[in-house]
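Dear colleagues,

As part of the handover before I leave the project, I'm documenting each prediction I ran so the next person doesn't have to rerun anything. This entry is a single chain, and its sequence is reproduced below.
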Amino acid sequence: MNSRNNQTRHSWHQLTGLVLRFPCSSRSCDRAATMAPVRSTTGSVVVATAAISISMAVFYYFLFFKKTPLTLPSNNNKKKKKPRNGVVDAIGNTPLIHINSLSEATGCEILGKCEFLNPGGSVKDRVAVKIIEEAMESGGLAPGGVVTEGSAGSTAISLATVAPAYGCKCHVVIPDDAAIEKSQIIEALGATVERVRPVSITHKDHFVNIARRRALEANELAAKNKKASRVDGKDPDRMNGYTLDQEKEHPGFLNHCSGGFFADQFENLANFRAHYEGTGPEIWEQTGGSLDAFVAAAGTGGTVAGVSQFLQEKNPKIKCFLIDPPGSGLFNKVTRGVMYNKEEAEGKRLKNPFDTITEGIGINRLTQNFMMAKLDGAFRGTDKEAVEMSRFLLRNDGLFLGSSSAMNCVGAVKVAKTLGPGHTIVTILCDSGMRHLSKFYNAEYLSQHGLTPTATGLEFIRV
């Protein structure tokens, strides 16, 4: 027992002696040193003295000599995320979120892909990048050229956002019944905007047809400028598939451009490929392939086509549906095989300027993109349902969504009620409400059209 006490005292002497060998120049440190090992026959005194000595020595060491802050051990195995390469590389890989209120109300897991978090604020960022990159790869567009498009807003904003990253300009033709803030955003992004009255697609002055003409005029002007500067009498090369036309007056925005390219989002299958190669695979990965249904509205048809085709190729049991707004003929096409009623000739119907309050969705013709869709059915949605849904989600989830996003969520609830509880349903949250303030979120405008929201729950949904 005595030998064990002696050994203990010897160990404490060594430890305290070691601690007090730290260099010290202060009187306080000298005083601490005077409290160094003291031989005592009482074990408790030795222990107490040693403890005090250690505490004082460590305190003064960190006070006077240890200048670097203490840091927690780092996990060297954790990979650092590399910065993305500019605005283009920041597009895509958007989060898939659980929409709590709708999931709780239906007994299904309703998920929304947050495309409003793309740099340009919408799902159309993916399309804009794909169209421009494929055009540049094919030689149809070059730096210094102008991209033209007829758009109700979102695609135009996306093109105006990404075009400068490729050294290009952007010109947009937009119907004048679109929310004014959309054209303001486009102009603020540096693009030129041409607002025109809404007419049928068969009319030469439909906004899409005007945009197509503007690209042709850009090529004609570029060819003219090239001809003026040709060398050794050689004819100019063909520009984007066009040759010099008769001399004419051109809009001022076409000056000093190296040619034009019509994005043609409705018929250009780069739109479909953007979602078949991007959005669809992301949804599959984010859900681990565990989903039962997908639903979305269609404007150009690129999103619903690309996602539905990819998902059904991965698992044919996944059901894909369309939600169609008022004034659109796609519901009839999917469910009955015809676009319109018998008395209406397909492709000839004149669109009412107020068919629907929603923007960017609904169409009265079949596009090349929509024809790629793999659909199991369709639902009709109303303006009242879209408005009520937007307010319901804002109150219950803090989601401030645009009109097409709200309509997609209407579709998700209708699918959930059709399939029953226990299913996983995915939809697209296309854009936020920030570009829908003058109409969709304007109380006076809604009142004028009998769309003032009044619901407290989801009682407004009709299947």
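DSSP finds 15 helices and ten strands in the chain. The CA atoms of residues 167 and 460 lie 48 Å apart.

All the best with the project,
I.
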